[in-house]
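Q: What would this complex look like in 3D?
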Amino acid sequence: LVAAFLVGLLLFCSPVTALFDRPSYWKGIPLLYLYFFAAWAMFIALLAWILRGKGE
Amino acid sequence: VTAGATGGETALSGSLIILVSLLYVCLLFAVAYWADRRADKGRSVIASPTVYALSLAVYCTAWTYYGSVGRAAESGIGFLPTYLGPTIAVALWGSLLLKMVRISKSLRITSIADFIASRYGKSHLLGGLVTLIAIIGIVPYIALQLKAISSSFSILLRYPDIVMPRHAGNLPFWADNALYVALVLAAFTILFGTRHLDASERHEGMVAAIALESLVKLVAFTSVGLFVTFGLFSGFGDIFEQARQAGYVEPLLQPAVGGYSAWFSLCLLAGLAIILLPRQFQVAVVENSNERQLRRAIWLFPLYLLLTNIFVLPIALAGQLQFPNGGVDADTFVLTLPMARESQWLALLAYIGGISAATGMVIVETIALSTMTCNDLVMPALLRHWGHAPPGQDVSRVLLRIRRWAIVLILLLGYLYFRLAGEAYALVSIGLISFAAVAQFAPALIGGLYWRGGTRDGAVAGLAAGFTVWLYTLLLPSFADSGWLPMSFREEGLLGIDWLKPQALFGSTGMDPISHCLFWSLAANLGTFLAVSLLRAPNAAETAQATLFVDALKRDRPVGGGFWRGRAEVDELIALAGRFLGAARAREAFTKHANKLGMRSASELPADAYTVSFSETLLAGVIGSASARVMVSSVTKEEPMGLDEVMGILDEASQIRAYSHELEQKSQELQSATAELRAANERLLELDRMKDDFMSSVTHELRTPLSSIRAFAEILQDNPDLEQDERTRFIGIIVTETERLTRLVNQVLDLAKIESGAAEWQNVRLDLGELIRQSVDSTERLFRDKGARVSLHLPERPALLWSDKDRLTQVMLNLLSNAAKFVAEDTGTVDVELHKYPDGYLVQVSDNGSGIPADELPFIFEKFRQGSGGHEKPVGTGLGLPISRGIIEHLGGRIWAESTPGQGATFSFLLPESQ
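A: Here is my prediction, written as structure tokens for the whole assembly.
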């Protein structure tokens, strides 16, 4: 989970976000907006996956 | 200012709105009541991890509900860090929050003030300070919720016209609906939170209601989002496309509005707030009923945040497209967009969602704050007033009254702030001011969980420093904005000193106010905390608590009861607890505790440290750990413990751990020793058996000559007239047999001597070749009798050696007679060889007899063993080879045998040249 924390930092609080910070569009939706929500969803999936691995 | 459509047929009357609001609140109360009933029956609804995760979503207040859209309209993607921060921080919950939950469970901690106070030696001062900071920091936040409810009500009242409520401040206070909102909320909170005093301070009903509210606000917000995105527009792409053409999109899609520092500090702030806000601490730690709930919450809670935020940007953009001339506050888009399209039921739903977001926050926050106020501000004062001894009456009702008044007071404070300053600020800014205030708890709390060195003084100093900086850089400027302080304070600095400018301390410009405050306050806080803590070593109480907190996740940590010494009366303890909990409940708790320890009633409990610690923990759940400590020590005679003693106890605990580890090792060693012993025993038994065998064989050997000696002696005795020839022959036989007896006895003695090391050795310089030749000569007759031929293979040079001549001769004779015994009849050949090796001599005696079976070979040199050499019983004592081995090994050499059954055997020994 600590690794997940670092991944989160990288995804959301680093120059990585700057890569998507440009005025391009996919079906009219801004790239940055798409990026954030996709990365967010992936991050949650990652957390859920890690915790499932630990078992109940 | 009006905008949007006009001319709707129906209007939402004020009474309908109020009715719906009240119905909603009643529904909440019904759910809470139902959940409480279920909990009493032992089928708790809030045990479900999903409910737990939903209750965590009390994080999303009206600030999220209305304010996110406002912030999105203003700074675009910049609304996200407030939710990304918690998402990232959640990854650390697995250890951080788990630790906090476990500590709070075992110490019955009921608020964040209690938690921090307890960590640093149960300090009243620290708890009070934390409470004060929390109240000052949170009151604006509560004001914000009141503002949200009252303005959304006003807006909806004008349906279908869209009118911004601008001048609430001008209304007389009795006409201001925010006041009534505050009072209704207070009543509701009192009903929820302070119906009775509970030792564990958990509110199952409230949590269930909060979880429901979380669902309601999510559904309401998503409905509006879906309506806007797919009703007003045809999907996400459409909204962004239209907004782009209108020029709204480009300026919004830059996270770097205030640079990355702003982005990062917002993430940090929100990540800290998610556990440090009193209400978050309340639902996440205090109301947690099972550690396993954390597991699902870790991914479910971020998912909730994600769902809440998907529609924020579309709604913001749609709002700007709908109300292009800026007449409508972006904070109200969630409500005004459905109104503009005359969708009254959706507007009502949006309004209810807003209410649920606001009420949820207010209820939990005020309950948490009232607990803190009661336990950490009022109790210490009361204790001082009582002189450390509570009055005889039942204190629990006093406590409840204190809490109820605290709730009313806090809400009225919120209302006051709303009336005086609430208008000047957008929702988001107020929320962030609160976040920055509670972020000050981070160094003391998180530092205290992982660092043993923190002291009470350090925590107090750090909190005070951080709080002061926060006050100066964030709160006072906001007062300046509201006109309470002259603007010059903000623009020119205190007393006109340039480097004291509140939002550019020491000339540090380029940061937005929040990052600026966060940086300076946390720097001051952390720096002071570390510096002051390092000034002095932690004292006894701090060390004891530090161990409980830092080692909370270790399985075999010492229990709290260890750090107490003194005298106590169980009855007094029960009576004391009874004053706060009610006599019946206190007795019940003690009886349960006694049962757990295997005793029938509470009166059997020993008045030891463990019992005292139990009653202290029990009280801590009601009045906070610091006050509980004072109370309990008022009825017990505690002898103060020095730091040395606490360290001693800790050492003892670790020593016990070490001992148990050692014990484990010892038992393992014992096991292996037992195995060895068993093996040795078996070997002994085997030896014993061999000895028996030998004894019988020796007896047999002895008896044969003895009986023949006796027989011939008797013949001689009975027949005195025996012929001379006969007589001579018989006597000859007697003499031979006697010699044989002597030889046998000698050999046994010899072996015993060699084995015990008592034999005498006389080393002389000798030629090994010469010795072998002599030995062969003296045994020549034996071979001749068998018809065997002996061939000698000796080197030409003399093999000189410093050794015992007689003993070596004995070995050679043994080996040769052995060979003679087993060599084949008539066709036998025996080879005797001597080889020079660099560091010694090798002597080999080989015969071509029947050889030695492979299974006997390893034992051929054992005592009392005789080579069977085939079928017939061999002659000899069975001691020759053991004696030879004893001699050779004494001389530093090695003797061994090789054999191929059927083709003879080779006996070899190796002697070192010098020893």
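A: To summarize the key features: The mean pLDDT of chain A is 67. The first strand of chain A starts at residue 25 and ends at 26.
Q: Very helpful, thank you.
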